[in-house]
Amino acid sequence: MRGLMMDRPLLLRSFLQRNEQLHGRRTVSAVADDGLVTRTYADIGRRARLLASGLAGIGIGTGDRVATIGWNTLTHFEAYFAVPCMGAVLHTVNFRLFPDQVAYILGHAGSRAVLIDADQWPLLEQVIDRCPDLQTIVVMNGPPPGSRLAGRAVHGYEDVIAAGDADYDFPEFDENTAAGLCYTSATTGNPKGVLYSHRSMVLHSLAHCLADAFGLSERMRILVATPMFHANAWGIPHSAALTGAVLVLPGRAPDAARLVGLVEDLQVTHLCGAVSVGVMIRDFVDPAAARHDLTSLEAVWLGGQAPTEALVRWFEEHAGAEVWQGWGMTEASPLATFNHVDHDLRAEPTEDRHRRALRQGAPLPLVELALVDKDGHSVPWNGTSVGEFRLRGPWIAREYFDDPERTAEVFVDGWYRTGDVGVVDPDGYMRLHDREKDLIKSGGEWISSVELENALQAHPGVSEAVVVAVPHEKWRERPLACIVPADRANPPDPAELDDFLAARVAKWWIPDRYEFVSSIPKTGVGKTDKKQVREQFRS
Amino acid sequence: MRGLMMDRPLLLRSFLQRNEQLHGRRTVSAVADDGLVTRTYADIGRRARLLASGLAGIGIGTGDRVATIGWNTLTHFEAYFAVPCMGAVLHTVNFRLFPDQVAYILGHAGSRAVLIDADQWPLLEQVIDRCPDLQTIVVMNGPPPGSRLAGRAVHGYEDVIAAGDADYDFPEFDENTAAGLCYTSATTGNPKGVLYSHRSMVLHSLAHCLADAFGLSERMRILVATPMFHANAWGIPHSAALTGAVLVLPGRAPDAARLVGLVEDLQVTHLCGAVSVGVMIRDFVDPAAARHDLTSLEAVWLGGQAPTEALVRWFEEHAGAEVWQGWGMTEASPLATFNHVDHDLRAEPTEDRHRRALRQGAPLPLVELALVDKDGHSVPWNGTSVGEFRLRGPWIAREYFDDPERTAEVFVDGWYRTGDVGVVDPDGYMRLHDREKDLIKSGGEWISSVELENALQAHPGVSEAVVVAVPHEKWRERPLACIVPADRANPPDPAELDDFLAARVAKWWIPDRYEFVSSIPKTGVGKTDKKQVREQFRS
User: What are the AMP-dependent synthetase/ligase domain coordinates in residue numbering (chains A, B) (predicted)?
Assistant: First the structure.
């Protein structure tokens, strides 16, 4: 027996329409080359419709992939809604990847148009010949460098807007229609595409805005340091549009000085970005000098990897801000868990509170989390039994775009095998140990590189630490710690680090070697690049 | 082009499962005949599965309607999940209706079983002969009065639980499967049934829990005075299960003393109920005597009709609690709008704040609100143009259960015609004037009975006021005010009331007559019964 409720589709256009009706006077601000630009949601809605009809006018139709290669800007934000709401697919491209990977991504997706920031033009010149489907180029945030490139028409973004139809309205269609496409870079092989639907994006946004998750609200002023090419910028643009939250987009190549300046000038309440962004801000701000004021911040949501306790304490002490985290990945839209700290745990002593804050959180509503061993059998949620995490839910991918071979590797029995390893506490909160490939297999036992890194980073002489496996004849693998000293000129004594660790981890976990470096290599999305560290110190 | 996300159905069972995993230690408390009973969500989940498998054992199958006739109790709460999650339909029956209406409802729904509170047995005896489909009776909260009634088997609730299968798990099925059935009593004709789906209930609950709506959270302790037979108790049981909020259910025939006692004893943070419940509490608590302490309350969510400014002020002054309201109806699951007060309006002077608090709110995400004139043409959202409200959205009914004639009257062009009349302010917040039938048509103009009532209730000599139309030879209709004086022995002087109103409403709105009464008649769901008032004073 079926219910007799209206069969209304879950579509992103409803966010935009509601926002215009209820929050038309609220704003999104973005850093442009000539300063801060602020636009109301009413204006953004109007321009998104003009953009959609303008794109239709230059040949973009239903189901077409429209790539974006751009920073966190107002134009990119408008495209975030215009493209999916017209029935096309927003294909955000990470321009920090190698040109070969960008060429692969654009070609594999079959993107028909690209909206590109003027400063990324040289990248497009390098890859255009390998993108036969790409017919239309729209240049954002700067003048088009020419009227044609390799035989393709080049348009200015504002010209497309100007040619749009003021009476255009977004169409209605099935909620399972594709809305977005994002490629996740693999450690081996080519990037893999995840094709989001309107339904998955709407449900993911509702979950974001739940009081017991991020609780995203109209009262927040949110600085989005997460790149908009990275997993829908964690879905924050959609959730902000749903609620009318004030958004702040940091524009081209933001550094710590710009981010801190935006927090101060626009009284930002919430900042979202990679853990490395949090580290960058900490290293930039000198609390003793009292030159910067971060106290408008209520919370800093850091992702990509686990923040250290030292970082959590720093933001608490110097900004009065909580550090929030979740766990997710491109395949999960990206948010699968969120570390909401229950009200009855808030009264706990600081140390216990931090221990809880360092967990990756509990599954969001509608997301199912499983912890399994190598054979796929369930592992108990007791805080000590280690297993691999699997996910199921309405905003988890069920396959990769046009990639049956890679699909078969990780989508099994209706579940997504994340490749992440860890434990679940009895209260349902998970703790991530490692990517499966980052675990160190030593003498038949596992060593968690993440736990070693956290232990090392608690040492006052250590600014940043990354632990990787190096081959070992007898033990198969042994840990090596690569360390950025707090005082570059005076790295800590290895024997002293040994003693420090001995009080914190099992004796056989203590690294065989410490290497002192001036910086740790990062991936295009700001995560520690363990692959590169491993290669550097293999011998 | 379709997205490639998992096709996971939105089912109520996911709330129950998540709650057991994450909030198993949290509780629901309910008043039973022998005192307060408290049960953990882990225990409730276990018992819900036992109940479902026990019901299956006595013949309840997929799609069967299972009626409940009961107060707000733990057993009723368990049935709220057990019945829909097994694939049957929870059919909540308002036992305050006339027996003829109850017989109609049970018969029309074709309910196969009924779960009935022991104290409602006499009602069942009166109607059973008119319910041919009703084969199974389960008695909750008391011993079964016999083993058979009119040839039907009678079971004790705990016996059904005891016969349940401990290994049973809820099945998975399509999200559009019917989950609940609730009849709305019409002013003329028979009640009309609304058939909810799992999808509509899940989406409605997510909307409830949004930070900018009710923001329902694990930190809340919520007293549900809204009857569980009334429009899913506003969806609060579902949303509480989603978040792990502590629920307090007031049991059989709660009066003001019990509700106030529960607030004090269990440190309730949020109370939900009809406006008449708020009035009842106000009249019971004497702030001067300082016998009662309502300061644990953060908010009181009152529904069914608009609260008066006097009531809003009373709760603010004597409980430190905000009064929240929304607008909705059985056909809307029930919540269509919610009056979230934006953060930037909170700093306004008290009077402005109250004026805003008295609005019925803005449409929830995914709900579309239209304001139209008699011909269905759009009316501007300017705060003054009056129209009828129409609704569309994934938790709005599209038809009545097995009632094509009544369906045709109100479900038009894909919209639900609510019959409610009012205005929408330019910021998208609506103000309800009246049910269309409660408007007073005087000399070709409309007089709002609600606005007159609000104005009268601001007078210190008025405890409660209701304004209805009485026939008038010249003007067609004129307003009559029926007033409960604050001091029963000294009703205010009509001339003084005229002067008081003259400063607040148009002169021709001033009622022709004032009638002083000791109480205002109420409907079975606690709303002012204007129909009865009209009939009483027609001549």
Answer: 29-401
